């Protein structure tokens, strides 16, 4: 199965976040960005988007 890419406009809309928030996630290496030759649009993998939307267990740090 080929990887399916989605552009940042559609990804932000599907995730219910703004494009600046999506770019912040990209800058923080939560999502990897891709560019195809001859295309200026930034693309991400749908699998990366789905992974980020899944609830994650977070370790709580309690100050003593």
Question: Mind explaining what this structure looks like?
Answer:
With 64 residues, this protein is mainly alpha-helical. The radius of gyration is 14 Å and the shape is elongated. It has one domain. The termini are far apart. 11% of the residues are buried. Helix content is 39%, strand content 9%. The chain has a two-stranded antiparallel ribbon with strand order 1-2. The protein is built from 3 helices and 2 strands.
* Gyration radius from CA atoms, angstroms: 14 Å
Shape: elongated
- Estimate the mean pLDDT confidence: 82
Structural class: mainly alpha
Stretches with pLDDT under 50, minimum 5 residues: none
Report the strand count. 2
Helix content: 25-40%
Q: Strand count, sense and closure of the main sheet?
A: 2 strands, antiparallel
**Gap between N and C termini:** 50 Å
Task: Give the number of helices.
Answer: 3
Number of domains: 1
Question: What is the N-to-C succession of helices and strands?
Answer: EHHEH
Neighbour order of strands in the largest sheet: 1-2
Oligomeric state, counting identical vs distinct chains: single chain
| DSSP strand content | 5-15%
List its salient traits:
64 residues, mainly alpha, two-stranded antiparallel ribbon, 3 helices
Topology:
Layout: E1 5-7, H1 8-15, H2 19-27, E2 43-45, H3 46-53
Antiparallel strand pairs: 1-2
Helix pairs in contact: 1-2
Structure at a glance:
This protein has 64 residues and is mainly α. The protein has helices spanning 8-15, 19-27, 46-53, and strands at 5-7, 43-45.
């Amino acid at each position: 199965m080929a990887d399916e890419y989605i552009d940042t406009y559609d990804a932000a809309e599907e995730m219910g976040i703004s494009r600046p928030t999506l770019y912040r996630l990209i800058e923080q290496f939560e999502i990897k960005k891709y560019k195809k030759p001859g295309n200026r649009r930034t693309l991400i993998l749908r699998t990366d988007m789905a992974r980020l939307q899944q609830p994650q267990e977070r370790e709580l740090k309690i100050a003593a």
